[in-house]
What we know:
- The protein is α/β, with parallel strands linked by helices.
- 38% of the residues lie in helices and 21% in strands.
Amino acid sequence: MSKVATTVREVKLxxxxxxVESSTRSTFDxxxxxxxxxxxxxHEATKEDVERACQAARRAFExxxxxxxxxxxxxxxxxxxxxxIERREELARLxxxxxxxxxxxxxxxxxxxxxxNLKFFADFMxxxxxxxxxxxxxxxxxxxYEPVGVAAxxxxxxxxxxxxxxxxxxxxxxxxxxVIKPAEATPLTVSLLGEIAKEAGIPDGVVNVVQGFGxxxxxxxxxxxxxxxxxxxxxxxxxxxxxxxxxxxxLKRVSFELxxxxxxxxxxxxxxxxxxxVSIQAAFLNSGQVCLAGSRILVQRSIFDxxxxxxxxxxxxxxxxxxxxxxxxxxxxxxxxHYEKVSSYLAIAAExxxxxxxxxxxxxxxxxxxxxxxxxxxxxIQEDSKARICQEEIFGPVVTLIPFDTEEEAxxxxxxxxxxxxxxxxxxxxxxxxxxxxKVRAGTIWVNCWFVRDLRAPFGGFKKSGIGREGxxxxxxxxxxxxxxxxxxx
Length: 490
């Protein structure tokens, strides 16, 4: 049974340092995807509420925050990270409750990583310098990197706290202020960022959190608000297109991390003792609800049968169950709507004459979980790489195994998709590792590993997988304006 009390929470808006109700007192319900129990009533921000949040962020930006010494700003951001670690148990339980992910994953990995995101960018900003360019001893030019203004941070439901702090860290470290909109399905942990910022000594109005939906709700109001200078969005590709259109009238700068359909390429010389467990993780972490999921597994035909046998065995060994149980490997899908979308691909797979290896149905679970949005780890074989299940982002625990014969064929299949967020390569041949990594059109390539993230390195996608890059100085470039100052020396 769940270890978290099922008390229904009231989630308010956090504007200008205070939790406030929606101006119309309109709310929407959030349920636990594992049980469908009601867990929260969430205040939906009106256009007026979003305007108040954006105006509060503007006042805070024009006030002390952007002019605060970097060392002092960084100190307060680091304190936010410390508070998150102090509240690690609470945050992990809430993340498991509304996302449906295993508590152990949230506690051991995601909450510490969320805190690290803040600390990293606080430290990184303190280490930054500027360029100087002397001109024949008559003039000297030097560069300052100054904050842009008010940032709209729109974050997804699969990794709510971690992906929000990934944006919030560089945003605040650079001296901007923020209006955050978490996904409507998973508001619980992100709703606490305002109070965490306040406790850390960050001035009122610097961090604001509004709740709501996209079109005709908080998301749309934020992207069109004239006070907002830049938008950072992680989510689905069609939503990114809509946001770009909404922000065009006011020339907002944008950074988008969008969908993916990664190729996980397993060559015949791969170490399967490493490749199979990591490929299982890449396929089924967070019930496959990860933009970086290795959902297209390309396996060289000479080892295909062995790979299928071992991968099937490993998938069937995963424990599907209550996210709050520490031995659960895979929880439910996040919502009824998403469950129905993912489940629709089971029929599509059958129509496309895909071969079902394992899964493809609801698991048998304890009575209190039977109403949850569960699906077994599902694996298909599909020879046709143009099939819909090989081309479309399913975003669930459904993967396809695609055989290939040659390196050239593997590259053609890997690149034959509108997405280009990431890829994975398994080989013990160093020359092949470099050669194939150079030819796969994706923003991140992992060789003999997956989901390893150095925050100094660029992250983002090719093609329809995004615009711009996050990480290290790439994040700071987005969240700053470069100013040149030319000084006469005589």
